[in-house]
Design a protein that fits this description.
The protein has a domain of 84 residues. It is 66% helix and 0% strand. It contains 8 helices and no strands. The protein starts with a helix and ends in a 23-residue tail after the last helix.
């Protein structure tokens, strides 16, 4: 009997891990498709910066179209901005938004049920914030609230990575 119960727990944990992985993987594919479809990698970024600075300093009162675009090129600047958005902080923010929307729209009903079926324990103080976060999620799983009440302490440090 113990072996069968252990196997069911293992299956539930595997399902939870797989579900969370699937949320992240699908979000990454979607964001990459959206941001990287028309992306052109800009080579020589450091040289571009120096050329841009040189042209700007040579004519500080000039118009961008007259001073910067002839030296660097409008399309190259557009490509540079797209590259930055696709690889910089915009990518991470967009990815988190897609993950959150995926969870909110589809997985929100399933994950709390999986969490309720499992018991999490740890004696390690390093895992304390995660344990507190799991407890908080479990407490509010059966409610209709979309955000935690303002007086609720939501553990973020050690649980949620910064943007």
């Amino acid at each position: 009997m113990y072996l069968r119960a252990r196997s069911l727990t293992d299956d539930l944990v595997d399902l939870l891990i797989e579900t969370i992985h699937r949320i992240g993987a699908r979000a990454e594919r979607k964001v990459e498709r959206e941001l990287l479809d028309d992306l052109k990698w800009v080579t020589g970024k450091q040289n571009l910066l120096f050329e841009l600075a040189d042209a700007s300093l040579a004519q500080p009162d000039g118009m961008v179209r007259d001073v910067v675009f002839p030296v660097v090129g409008e399309q190259k600047l557009r490509d540079l901005v797209k590259e930055w958005k696709a690889t910089g902080p915009t990518y991470r923010v967009t990815l988190r938004t897609v993950i959150r929307n995926s969870y909110r729209g589809h997985y929100r009903r399933m994950v709390p049920q999986l969490l309720a079926a499992l018991e999490f324990r740890s004696n390690n103080d390093r895992h304390r914030p995660v344990m507190q976060a799991l407890e908080l999620v479990k407490r509010f799983a059966d409610t209709k609230v979309h955000t935690f009440p303002p007086d609720e302490v939501v553990p973020l440090d050690g649980v949620v990575r910064g943007l």
